[in-house]
């Protein structure tokens, strides 16, 4: 799936996903409405899962580097998404792992 191959690109847009799937933006949203999550939620979850894996692999890696490697545009966006998905900040997660 296009999203799985490109989720770490911070410039990825819904229009790009729709175009890669040869559907309109509206059709893409309707397709995702049939599932549990919308497009943005799925993308956020995939990026947070990548961040979790990176933190587990290298707990000393700077969080800004983790954010960028996971596809987040900013550190703030990363922190908000991470907390929304996990219930804790990236720093708290790292501390609990240690």
From TrEMBL:
The keyword DNA-binding applies. Gene3D superfamilies: Homeodomain-like. Keywords: DNA-binding, Transcription, Transcription regulation. Residues 1-96 form the HTH araC/xylS-type domain. It comes from the Bacteria. SMART domains: HTH_ARAC (SM00342). InterPro entries: AraC_XylS_family_regulators (IPR050204), Homeodomain-like_sf (IPR009057), HTH_AraC (IPR018060), HTH_AraC-typ_CS (IPR018062), Tscrpt_reg_AraC-type_HTH (IPR020449). One of its GO terms (molecular function) is DNA-binding transcription factor activity. Pfam families: HTH_18. This is Transcriptional regulator. It comes from Nocardia seriolae.
């Amino acid at each position: 799936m296009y999203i799985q191959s490109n989720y770490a690109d911070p410039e990825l847009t819904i229009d790009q996903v729709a175009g890669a799937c040869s559907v309109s933006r509206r059709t893409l949203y309707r397709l995702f409405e049939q599932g549990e999550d919308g497009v943005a939620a799925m993308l956020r979850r995939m990026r947070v899962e990548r961040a979790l894996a990176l933190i587990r692999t290298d707990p000393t890696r700077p969080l800004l580097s983790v954010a960028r490697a996971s596809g987040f545009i900013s550190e703030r966006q990363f922190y908000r998404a991470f907390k929304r998905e996990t219930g804790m900040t990236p720093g708290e997660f790292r501390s609990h792992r240690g």
